[in-house]
Every structure is written in structure tokens, then in C-alpha cells.
């Protein structure tokens, strides 16, 4: 196609969005784009602007400046239309609600825009077949959330927004919800943005991660890249245990995750230290070692047979490597 230029067309574009806050902007010139069928997780500490960003994207809050575009069309805020929200964007807040004294099937049928076959697919994907005859008032929190998800999906959204979908859930229901979200993606391919303050919840789900702090984008990339190459200690801390040690090559500081280090029997090429604590972490132990170079190391180990004060040597786990 000589003379024709093909431009990348993002499904969603967030362009220099600013939203006012109390002492500082809740969102400070936030920009990013998202392709179709992507799974984006927005993570950050409490008050970093995650929920505010999600609401601006969904047209539930106005941006002070900047704009959001879905399929190259501007998403209008509540000041620009009678009812807040966007017909192609499904938004589920962390305070999701259902009408009481209704059967689940009645609640779903009122929102359904799909054929009976498509309806059955949504019911199966959300694992709510056995709940259809139940009264909404008699549902558990995890069951109610799956009903709300099904209700939103029945409107056939182009973009799905989930605010803290794993909050206030025990491990059992969190596991089910994660499986449901994966099945939603595999079956429907719905482009999804998920907000969470616990970054470890999204490792196996997200195709991309965006990290916020004080309303600013700190880092964006693949989960593995951000985990092993965080832009700052703030980002590193969101994704789990870490320590910073001098490179054995040039002494420059390098961030290590616990699995990137090992306890060695040889002193050569290793850091010497004493065991400070041994903690069971489920399937492995975390060994905290106080090093002679006045640094702390955290090592993942298959067993915890170490005594406090025991002298050990810490080396780089070459099977994983600090260069990952």
C-alpha cells in the first residue's frame, strides 16, 4: 500500500488528565493509552488517585483539564450530559449494590441486551447458574459481586472498569473472583482496567501495569518488568519483598528479589552475614540476613532450618540472576 501510513489506533486514550484534590492534584497530567483486549492493572498506595482515575475514565467524574477518548470519541463527564457514565463502559465500584427483594434472574433480565444464548454464556462464565432463583438479599458478598459483574457484562461493554474487586474478600472468594475474571477475558475478550492497592493480586492476570503515586504516573509496563526493574523503591515495595545490595562487578546498588539470592556454602563472591529471622511464607521460607556490609538481605529458601545468629554467605542465584 504505497503512500499509505497506518497509525496505531488505541481503544482508550487518556490525555493529560488533571483532577483537583485537597492539598495536591488527585490526578496530575495523567496520560496513557490502551489497546483492545488489554488487561491493565492500576496500582498504588491509598490516596494515589487510582479510583479517581477510574471514575474520570468512566465519565463519572469530570476532568479539570485533559480528556479521555474511547474509540477516538471523547468520553463526556457528568457536567456535559444528563446521566453520568458512558454507554460502552461498564463500571463496578468497590461499593457495588443490588436491589433487595428481587430474584437474581429478575435483576439480570432487566439489564440484559443479549440473546438467550449469550445470556447463558455470561451466567456460566460468572459462575452464577445456581444463584438465579435466589433472592438478592440472601447472597454473600462474593456472590453479589459476581452477580453485579454479570449484570454489567450483559450490557455488552467495550471497556470494563473494576475498582478494588478483591477488597474485603477472604482467600477462597478472592480465588474464585480471579478465576472468573480470567474466564471473562478468555471467553469474551473484554478490555479491562482493574484498580487495586495490593499489586500481588494481579501478577497472574494483568498484561500491563500502571503505577500511580500522588496522582502521577510513576511507571508503566509488563508485570515482570516492573517487578524486576522497578523505577523506584516505592514501586519495588508495592510488589513484595526486596533488598538493595552493591553489584559484585562495579559496586553500584542493585535491587534483588528474594528468589534472586541464595545461601551459599562458599565465601568467595558472596556477602557474609548472620541470620536475623526465619519466616514461613507458604511453600517456602524467607530468611532475613544482616550482612557485614551493613545491609539487609532477604532470601527465599525451601526450608527454614537456620538458627538466629548463624553465620551464612549470600550469593546471587544464577538460575534466576539479578539481570532478569
Structure report:
The protein is α+β, with helices and mostly antiparallel strands. Helix content is 21%, strand content 30%. It has helices at 50-57, 104-111, 116-125, 141-153, 171-188, 223-228, 233-238, and strands spanning 12-19, 27-34, 39-43, 65-70, 73-74, 89-92, 159-163, 191-196, 208-213, 216-221, 243-246, 253-256, 261-264, 271-280, 285-291, 296-301, 311-316. The strands form 4 sheets. A 6-stranded mixed sheet has the order 6-7-8-3-9-10, sandwiched between helices. It has a 5-stranded antiparallel sheet with strand order 13-17-14-15-16, with no helix packed on it. A 4-stranded antiparallel sheet has the order 2-1-4-5, with helices on one face. A hairpin with a 7-residue loop joins strand 1 and strand 2 (27-34). Helix 2 (104-111) packs parallel to helix 4 (141-153). The radius of gyration is 24 Å and the shape is globular.
Amino acid at each position: 500500500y504505497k503512500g499509505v501510513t497506518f497509525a496505531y489506533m488505541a481503544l482508550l486514550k487518556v490525555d493529560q488528565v488533571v483532577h483537583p484534590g485537597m492539598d495536591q492534584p488527585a490526578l496530575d497530567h495523567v496520560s496513557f493509552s490502551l489497546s483492545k483486549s488489554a488487561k491493565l492493572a492500576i496500582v498504588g498506595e491509598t490516596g494515589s488517585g487510582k479510583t479517581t482515575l477510574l471514575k474520570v475514565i468512566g465519565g463519572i467524574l469530570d476532568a479539570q483539564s485533559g480528556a479521555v477518548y474511547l474509540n477516538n470519541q471523547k468520553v463526556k463527564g457528568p457536567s456535559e450530559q444528563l446521566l453520568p457514565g458512558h454507554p460502552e463502559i461498564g463500571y463496578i465500584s468497590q461499593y457495588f449494590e443490588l436491589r433487595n427483594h428481587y430474584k437474581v434472574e429478575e435483576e439480570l433480565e432487566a439489564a440484559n441486551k443479549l440473546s438467550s444464548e449469550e445470556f447463558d454464556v455470561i451466567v456460566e462464565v460468572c459462575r452464577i447458574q445456581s444463584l438465579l432463583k435466589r433472592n438478592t438479599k440472601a447472597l454473600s458478598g462474593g456472590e453479589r459481586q459476581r452477580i453485579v459483574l454479570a449484570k454489567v457484562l450483559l450490557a455488552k461493554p467495550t471497556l470494563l472498569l473494576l475498582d478494588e474487586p478483591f477488597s474485603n474478600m477472604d482467600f477462597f472468594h478472592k480465588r474464585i473472583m480471579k478465576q472468573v475474571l480470567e474466564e471473562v477475558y478468555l471467553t469474551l475478550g473484554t478490555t479491562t482496567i482493574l484498580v487495586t492497592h495490593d499489586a500481588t493480586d494481579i501478577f497472574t492476570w494483568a498484561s500491563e501495569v500502571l503505577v500511580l503515586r500522588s496522582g502521577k504516573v510513576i511507571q508503566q509496563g509488563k508485570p515482570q518488568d516492573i517487578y524486576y526493574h522497578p523505577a523506584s523503591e516505592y514501586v519495588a515495595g508495592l510488589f513484595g519483598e526486596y533488598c538493595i545490595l552493591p553489584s559484585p562487578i562495579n559496586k553500584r546498588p542493585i535491587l534483588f528479589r528474594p528468589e534472586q539470592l541464595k545461601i551459599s556454602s562458599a565465601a568467595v563472591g558472596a556477602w557474609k552475614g548472620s541470620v536475623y529471622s526465619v519466616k514461613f511464607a507458604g511453600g517456602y521460607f524467607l530468611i532475613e540476613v544482616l550482612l557485614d556490609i551493613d545491609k539487609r538481605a532477604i532470601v527465599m529458601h525451601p526450608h527454614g532450618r537456620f538458627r538466629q545468629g548463624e553465620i551464612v554467605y549470600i550469593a546471587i542465584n544464577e538460575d534466576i540472576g539479578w539481570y532478569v
